[in-house]
Amino acid sequence: MECGQCSARLAVTRGASSVQCAHCRRATRVERHGAVVHGAVGFVRSVFTNIGRARPHPGYPPVHGNKRALLVGINYTGTAAELPGPINDVKCMSFLLTLKYGFPGDCILVLTDEERDPYRRPTRANILVAMRWLVHGCSSGDSLVFHFSGHGDQEKDKDGDEQDGQDESICPLDWQLNGAILDDEINEAIVRPLVQGVRLHAIIDACRSGTVLDLPNLCQIKKERETPVD
To answer: Which range (90-99, 176-185, 203-212) has the least confidence?
Structure first.
């Protein structure tokens, strides 16, 4: 079934009355409407949405066209971790995409902590749903952009897929309450769903963000040392 909060796919144990999402960490009540059983495996149909389809929050732009962007800027206003520039970064990126690269304004989804719409606040749950909006229904020839400006962090790797033993992460507005978004989750949300021929540009302006998409290859560019001029 799917999470009623962020639409992530959930594995349901037979007989369970609720299940906790590993992404947004919210509990979803299991509603059974004629469970179909094949051997020892029970398949439960969720009443929240159709299986396999992401459900964006109300007010998100409809999915259409071949250019789409998700821009997230978090100033963490009023906290000890406050930053001065991320929201302005998002405004500049939106301007660049629309005027320079022809992205339709109604195909750009912006999440910042100055937004009053609760669905456009850059919380952990909202960012994960917005990521699924970004890649939902993508097809060959599409151009997608993910831009995040804010804090980044690291925490101990728990599944053994990091050479340095650390997972990279981005910090949503509510990260102190609900946790950061790990590189594993970002990869699952916006990398794995890509089909052949889709181009995704990700611009991450945050600390420790070099491998935050968990891509198989890493390119390191060393700047040539400048020769002093007399």
So the answer is: 203-212
What are the residues facing 156 on neighbouring strands? Answer: 166
| Helix H or strand E encompassing 19 | strand 18-20
Closest CA relative to residue 189, chosen from 125, 109, 141:
125
Catalytic residue among 151, 171, 201, 219: 151
The per-residue pLDDT for range 25-66, each reduced to its tens digit, is 666 766 544 333 333 333 333 322 332 344 556 668 787 779
Residue 58's CB is within 10 A of a number of other CB atoms, namely 7
Residue 40: predicted pLDDT: 30
Report how far residue 190's alpha carbon sits from residue 114's, in angstroms, rounded to the nearest whole number: 25
Residues 6+ apart with CB under 8 A from 54: 7, 129, 132, 133, 136
* Whether residue 158 is found in the same domain as residue 80: yes
In a domain, 74, yes or no: yes
pTM for the structure as a whole: 0.71
Are 49 and 121 contained in the same domain?
A: no
Q: How many domains does the chain have?
A: 2
Q: What single-letter DSSP state applies at residue 107?
A: G
Percent of the chain topping pLDDT 70: 65
Give residue 52's pLDDT.
Answer: 34
Whether residue 21 lies in the annotated active site: no
Alpha helix locations (H) across the chain? 86-99, 124-135, 175-178, 183-186
Structural domain harbouring 139: 67-205
Active site residue 23: no
